[in-house]
Amino acid sequence: MRQEKLEYLQKKYESRLNPSSDKELAAAGAHGPGGPGPGGHGRRGGRGGMPVKKPKNVKKTMGRLFAYIANEKLKLFIVFLCVIGGTVANLAGSYMLRPIINGLTSPEGSVSFLLKGILTMAVIYLVGVAAQYLQQRIMIGVSQNAICKLRNDLFGKMQRLPVRYYDTNNHGDVMSRFTNDVDAVGEMLNNTVVQLISGAINIVGTFALMIYTNVWLTLITVAMIPLMLKAVQAVGGRSRKYYRAQQAAIGTLNGYIEETVTGQKVVKVFNHEEEAREEFEYLNHDLRGKQIKAQFFGGIMGPVMGNLSQVSYSLTACIGGILCVLRGFDIGGLTVFVNYSRQFSRPINEVAMQVNTIFSALAGAERVFSVMDEEPERADAEQAIRIVEKERRSLYQIPKKSPVTEAENFPENVVSQDDSYYYKDVKGAVTLADVTFGYNPDKTTLKNISLYAKPGQKIAFVGSTGAGKTTITNLINRFYDIDAGSITIDGIPVTELERDSLRRNISMVLQDTHLFTGTVRENIRYGRLDATDEEVEQAARTASAHSFIVHLEHGYDTMLEGDGANLSQGQRQLINIARAAISRAPILILDEATSSVDTRTEKHIEKGMDRLMAQRTTLVIAHRLSTVRNANAIMVLENGEIIERGDHDDLLMQKGRYYELYTGLSELD
Ligand SMILES: Nc1ncnc2c1ncn2[C@@H]1O[C@H](COP(=O)(O)OP(=O)(O)OP(=O)(O)O)[C@@H](O)[C@H]1O
Ligand SMILES: [Mg+2]
Predict the structure, then answer these.
(1) I want to staple 622 with a disulfide (CB 3.0 to 4.6 A). Which of 48, 85, 130, 627 is the partner?
(2) Following DSSP, what letter does each residue of 360-375 receive, concatenated?
(3) Which CATH entry fits the domain spanning 13-21+54-372: 3.30.70.260, 3.30.2350.10, 3.40.50.170, 1.20.1560.10?
(4) Atom of ligand 1 at shortest range from CA of 511
(5) Same fold? 13-21+54-372, 430-668
(6) Closest by Cα among 618, 502, 524 to 573
């Protein structure tokens, strides 16, 4: 039972980080403990969350990573020289022992000779230290520049990804690309590259010097290599395996902690503390077991290699001693040789240990690059139409060769033109004609939606949960593109408008409120960055937010943190409305904007907004039908279709779905 539960938990939390295993989870879920875990958003994969995976295409990823440091070729070249210099100095420094010892053991040896030898050695080592210092400084600069650029590119790309990407990818997983994956790459660039080069030079250099010093002894050392490699493979392989398991377990545990922390209120409400503690204990126990193994195998690598190198050392010393006695091999030579034979195993060991870092880094880089390779929001049409300000008027700037100008009744309402553009007023008429759309190709969410909102009109959408109201708004501002039909604004298909211009034309209060870390003023100004303080206040008044804002500790300068955690749900909505109200966009979309606001305040907002709405086309979604009574037209949606339309009185007369909703009939069945 215990094992079963542990496996279920592992699968569940692993899938948060790796959505591809969702399907397996669904299958496992059938037998697992019921019910979803505590809710909460802002899923964040903890550090060390991703299991170490083997990269898929090492060469390609390496190439792409290299491109990030390639523009600093001169610095890299200096680093390369420094690594060579440092390593060679190290080798040469230790080789200096030979003449010193030989000189001392010979009859002509003297103190001044010794001092000279030691001084030369010191100079060589100093050069080595200087080279290492320089190399470290430059390389850290290079790698941090590369990481900085990588992060910038990743974030830049994320801003261009379509909403679909965020709707289909786990937030924790997206976050972990910035944390774990970028860190892993940084770790590799910081140390591994240099260590690999210096390791390789060390191996080759030591080997050459060993041969130079004594070929026979070299053979003994070389004979030990397969044994050492075998040990590295056996211990290293296991250590990697358990290390991977440990990483996955850390990820799982972090996921669990994070979810329990964000969902702590729900945990408490449903008295799940004891279960949470128990589940945590399972995961924690599991991690402990894996950590013991990982640490053990990671830890014995050093002693195992140390002992093998001792064996090699003793063997070399014995045979070297015999060579000294019988074959006249110089003692200085023997001294440096045994040193080298010891040094020789170190880089082999080091390089072997780097493999893990390299694999994690490459796997991380692959995950980062996979985001960069994601399809961005579709590019604007070649002759996209822009909205420009001319003499304080907002105008569509329509290229003379745009598909829009080829429409039959085009020259209508053109206010001016120059050599390359026609200009038309921005008014805000919204038309949907036979729009059909599905989030997934195999399921249509909206069917044949048609409607026309004249500039300045208020159109309302009502209907049951999941009917498709929010989806319509997602299509108008092109969060998603439609499958069939057309959506036009002032007769211009939204696909022909520059995306930025389109979204500047539409001010929205989304169903999920979101506030950024910053002051109340900054949050409202987010709707139009050049708004003055008076305008911010005016917008707040319109949204009936002013009276509560002035009672906050620092008024408009109160800091909001954690999505406005220090405000009530309704207050958050009011700030969201103010943010939309400050924008001058001719189209306003309110998706359940006042769902958490009391009816009296709602009336106030309505009054304030009426003035605002008079010049704007407004699309309102509301469950509370009193808010939509005065709309010019009300669309009743059911299962992605408009089943009734008309104004409040028409719809009541029809005695259909709206009538049922309004009179509460449908609540009874
Ligand atoms: N990102 C998405 N991916 C796939 N399906 C989605 C997505 N968003 C919504 N849906 C589905 O589309 C349908 C319509 O959802 P929509 O959000 O438009 O409903 P709604 O009318 O706004 O409901 P509510 O009143 O609860 O806000 C629902 O069945 C929902 O499951
Ligand atoms: Mg909705």
Answers:
(1) 627
(2) HHHHHHHHHHHHHTS-
(3) 1.20.1560.10
(4) 27
(5) no
(6) 524
Looking at per-residue confidence, does 171 or 534 come out higher? 534
Q: Which of 168, 170, 445, 638 to mutate to test the pocket of ligand 1 (most atoms within 8 A of CB)?
A: 445
As residues whose CB is below 5 A from the ion ligand 2, the structure lists: 470, 511
Determine if ligand 1 sits within 6 Å of the CB of residue 446. no
Q: Do 315 and 220 meet the contact criterion of CB atoms below 8 Å apart? A: yes
Q: Is the pLDDT of residue 25 over 60?
A: no
User: Measured in angstroms, how far is the CA atom of residue 168 from the centroid of ligand 1?
Assistant: 13
Q: How far is the CA of 468 from the centre of ligand 1 (A)?
A: 6
pLDDT of 110 > 60? The answer is yes
Establish whether residue 167 lines the binding site of ligand 1, counting it when its CB lies within 6 angstroms of any ligand atom.
yes
Query: Which residue in this structure is represented by tokens 């053979």?
Result: 219
The answer to whether residues 247 and 52 touch, using CB atoms and an 8 Å cutoff, is: yes
Could you tell me if the CB of 479 is within 6 A of ligand 1?
A: no
- Which pLDDT belongs to residue 666? 56
Q: Could you say which DSSP state residue 616 is in? A: S
pLDDT value at residue 1? 65
Fold of 430-668: Rossmann fold (3.40.50)
Distance of CA 596 from the midpoint of ligand 2 (Å): 14
Distances (CA, A) of 501 to 378, 504, 618: 15, 5, 18
User: How far does residue 576's CA lie from ligand 1's centre (Å)?
Assistant: 21
* Position 39 pLDDT exceeds 60: no
Mutate to test the pocket of ligand 1, among 163, 170, 437, 439 (most ligand atoms within 8 A of CB): 439
Q: How confident is the model at residue 485 (pLDDT cuts 50, 70, 90)?
A: very high
pTM over 0.85: no
DSSP assignment letter at 71: G
Other beta carbons less than 10 A from residue 490's beta carbon? 20
Backbone angles phi and psi of 263, in degrees to 5: -100, 25
